[in-house]
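W.,

You were right to be curious about this one. When I first looked at the sequence I had no strong expectations either way, so I just let the prediction run and decided to look at it fresh. Below is the sequence, 207 residues in total, followed by the output.
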Amino acid sequence: MHLPDGIVPVEMALAGYACSAGLVALALHRIKTLPDPQAEIPRVAMLTTVFFAASLIAVPVPPASVHLMLAGLMGVMLGWFAIPAIMVGLFLQAMLFGHGGITALGLNGVIFGLPALGAFGIWRLIGGRWPDVGAFLAGSGAVLAALALFAGIVLAGLPAVIDAGAERIALQLLLIAHLPLALAEGVIVMTLLRVLRRVEPRLVPHG
């Protein structure tokens, strides 16, 4: 669910870069306030690799195919580190495999980055008391939030010559195809954190 080049006007693409730059700057500022940011680098590198590789596995869900987004997992496991990690992953996906576009990289950063921060917030809010519920809501909620952002950006950037009604139908089908993915990612995040709590509790982020 990446925006390709040319699907939105240039001014929207530039606005996307501005928003992503702001998110990265805010994230780096918050990261600098941590006691030992360098200690998180191995975890960030590992999860950036997982995020990058996830888009290579497409699952057919009629009428479309979907792939794991993992924005919720990135947010829960990395917190503010998720923003620069996601931007690096999106850049590599666009350059190496054509998933998304270079001009749309900023908007794709918003589509994935904001839900990741939302997942981080959900986990911090309720993960400590109800870890399974918090993990599931973070994983599935991030997918739903990304879908809403994607649809909103596409509809806002539609050229006047395109049939808006037909485009809305296509977006509705895309959203329906991704609903099973939302459930799956909720289960993935919940299961992963449950396993980590049993075998390596120190790797579980604090809720």
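Here's what jumped out at me. The beta strands are 58-61, 64-67. And, maybe more interesting for your project: The first helix runs from residue 10 to 32.

Coffee later to discuss?

I.
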